[in-house]
């Protein structure tokens, strides 16, 4: 017997403005369309079950099971401190 791990880990709830891939079983995954969520429809448990996605031809309702949330960072990483220019702080150069 194998352990069934489906739906065991909580997933983040999608929100308006999130970028998702829209699954299409008739196309390979490399051709799935990237879209933005414009509205969420919540179930009785408070989780988003259906989302309205905006396309170039209009807006469509899609179940969350047909959407793949893309992990996009909202804030850019902080830039590192400026590297020092003094000769003693630099690493030795290879010859």
TrEMBL record:
Residues 72-95 are annotated as: Disordered. Residues 1-70 form the DUF5641 domain. This is DUF5641 domain-containing protein. It comes from the Eukaryota. Pfam families: DUF5641 (PF18701). InterPro entries: DUF5641.
